Each structure stands twice: as C-alpha cells, then as structure tokens.
What we know:
Elements: E1 3-8, H1 24-40, E2 46-49, H2 53-66, E3 73-74, H3 83-90, H4 104-119, H5 130-144, E4 151-156, H6 158-169, H7 173-181, E5 188-193, E6 198-205, H8 214-217
Parallel strand pairs: 1-4, 2-3, 2-4
Antiparallel strand pairs: 1-5, 5-6
Helix pairs in contact: 1-2, 3-4, 4-7, 5-6, 6-7
Amino acid sequence: xxxxxxxxxxxxxxxxxxxxxxxxxxxxxxxxxxxxxxxxxxxxxxxxxxxxxxxxxxxxxxxxxxxxxxxxxxxxxxxxxxxxxxxxxxxxxxxxxxxxxxxxxxxxxxxxxxxxxxxxxxxxxxxxxxxxxxxxxxxxxxxxxxxxxxxxxxxxxxxxxxxxxxxxxxxxxxxxxxxxxxxxxxxxxxxxxxxxxxxxxxxxxxxxxxxxxxxxxxxxx
Length: 221
C-alpha cells in the first residue's frame, strides 16, 4: 500500500543564535536514516520538505545516506509553527520566564502552556493562528498522498507531524502537544493511504538508532 514517511528533522542548534541549522549530530542522524532506508530497500519516488533550513539539510542527508539523487518538492505546510514569535506575542508586555530559549526544561514547560493558549486563541496577534496552522499541515500531507506514487518521504517538524497524527485520529489539541514533546529527531511516522482512506501505521519510529549508537544519536531537540 502507498506509504507516506513523515520524518522529523535532525537535531537542530538549540540555544545557538540560529536554531535553524543542523548540528553535526543532526547531519549524522539524517545520513544514518538514509543508510537504514538503503538497507531495507526503501527508495522514494517522491520527496518533499518544508521551507526551513533544518528540514532541507535533513532531506539532503537522508538522500546522501541512501545514495539516491532526487529533487525535492517544497511545501510550506510542513514548516513548524513559529514558537519564538508566539512567545514574543504572548509576552509582549514582558514577564517571560528566564531561560525558556536556552534551558531544555524551561523551554518545553513554556511550550506546553503557550501552545495550549494558542490553541484556545488566547494569544493576541500571533504570527499564525491555530485555525490556519491545522489546515496548512493537512494540505501539505494531502499533496503528498497523490495517485501514482508508492513511497513518499517528507521532512517536517515535531509540531506539524504531531498535528497530522492528531488530525487523523481526531484527537483534541492537547494530544498534539503531548505527541510533539516525545518526538525524536529523525523519527519516522508512517501513513498508509488510498484514494479514499488514510491510516496511521506507526509513530515516532527510530529503527536507525540502535543500542550501539543511541548514546550519541538519540536526541529530542
């Protein structure tokens, strides 16, 4: 059955001036995933990513590891929501927690509460409304699940992938956040699809990360 592999980007540069760049580990994660695809004989006939640099670099690494050259389509619907701008909108009058963009625990605690307010449309003047984020993710996924393709790779981000799964399962927004917060870098989520139906086959898989390399390659940010 045709399969859409939704792939989270590799480890980005958390705490750096530019988060939207893969770390050396992120590049290694992407190539290792590509090598796993090659070992399994899984070769895409369609590849895509969002507009973010970390997503493009991840796809490049996957294709390098797979030893397969292919031009990727670009769909902005796969982009992550702009969390930094959401925070700026929420704390426009000040009072932002210390360390929320440099300390992992503070960051994820703040993300959970901020996204909940965003989902309830309680943040004034957000960079994007939740009611716009949801359909753009759905549109990007639908664009990939087209007739005539069997294997699709699409590199996206944790929030967008979690929303795609939540929408398919008709789950409340709180579950989108819970799924996002447990998603591993370069994890695979698989959708099986037909012209009439879509099925969740797996979530947050990392078959390329093993006991031998997990200490180095298992990351979440």
